[in-house]
Design a protein that fits this description.
single chain, 307 residues, alpha/beta, Rossmann fold, two-stranded antiparallel sheet, 12 helices, 50% helix, 13% strand
């Protein structure tokens, strides 16, 4: 009997649907797989939909990893698993705070050390920096990162610029204005198709073969948009600057932070409006001169699943 642990946090519920599809083959194979599901619960949970100021006021702590306290996990930290699946959201180009909090726990240190770990994210198409942070944390814990799946919004980079924040702040994915603002979130057919990842996991587990970096290869688990690499790097640097400033002004909810958040939101809008198109433009201009570099970066960010 193989033991699999799913650890998840899904504020909107979308990621839970993805993970339910992925783990369905494992859950159905009760004679072969013992599937445990652990849903992370912060003691002070994050609301959905978000109040607008709380949404933006969460950003400094997310970027700097000031994590909330979690409710007890409820599983024996000494227990060992054949595979661990980590399902997380990307907030402000970082892993969501509940997942960051889990990775600091003693249970994470024990469950993940020398254990095959697959990561799953469902978000806008800007997930590269968040996954880089996940890779660094997993490496520090001694985990064996064997696979990654990234499911991105059907609205695309431009469409999700308004669609995703409106979904977060209202709880309604849309579409809006007669489709001028598209529906936010991962397309239902992509969610349903994610079952293929679980089928591969079950095949490998049932065969007794070693679980390695080939786990999700050839399944189209990730698609790296090289045009967004420079934009994510630039925005991430800006997040560090603004996050440090806002943290220095006081804790969450402090009036000085509330005032500064207005300027931060203005910067964020300008950064996305100008930096993302600039990244596309630079790719068009410099792309022919940087084919090898971009190909290497695409392979790097797509690892371990491959694009």
């Amino acid at each position: 009997m193989k033991k699999v642990l799913l650890i998840q946090y899904s504020q909107t519920g979308q990621l839970s649907k993805v993970l339910a599809q992925i783990t369905a083959p494992l859950a159905e194979a009760k004679d072969q797989v013992d599937l445990r599901v652990l849903t992370l619960k912060p003691k002070q949970d994050f609301p959905f939909p978000w109040p607008v100021f709380r949404f933006f006021d969460t950003f400094p702590e997310t970027v700097y990893g000031d994590t909330p306290e979690l409710e007890p996990l409820g599983l024996d930290p000494a227990e060992r698993f054949d595979l661990v699946i980590l399902g997380y959201q990307a907030w402000f180009l970082s892993p969501c705070l509940p997942m960051q909090a889990f990775l600091k726990t003693e249970a994470a240190a024990q469950w993940l050390k020398d254990t095959p770990v697959a990561t799953v994210v469902a978000c806008r198409d800007m997930w590269l920096k968040a996954q880089e942070i996940m890779k660094e944390r997993l490496a520090a814990l001694g985990a064996r990162h064997v696979g990654h799946a990234a499911l991105v919004d059907e609205a695309g980079t431009v469409g999700s610029f308004l669609a995703t924040p409106l979904w977060m702040l209202t709880g309604k994915p849309g579409p809006r204005l007669g489709g001028l603002i598209p529906r936010a979130g991962v397309a239902p057919e992509k969610i349903a198709a994610s079952r293929r990842f679980g089928e591969r996991m079950l095949t490998v587990l049932a065969s007794g073969a070693a679980i390695d970096e080939t786990l999700l290869r050839g399944l189209g688990a990730v698609e790296v948009n090289t045009a967004l690499i420079s934009s994510e790097n630039a925005i991430r640097r800006g997040f560090r600057v603004w996050g440090g400033l806002l943290r220095a002004l006081g804790p969450q909810g402090h009036w000085r932070r509330q005032v500064a958040l207005v300027f931060y939101v203005a910067w964020l809008v300008l950064a996305i409006v100008f930096l993302v198109p600039l990244g596309y433009l630079l790719r068009k201009v410099l792309g022919p001169l940087q084919r090898r570099k971009l190909a290497a970066l695409k392979d790097y960010y797509a690892a371990p699943s491959g694009s």
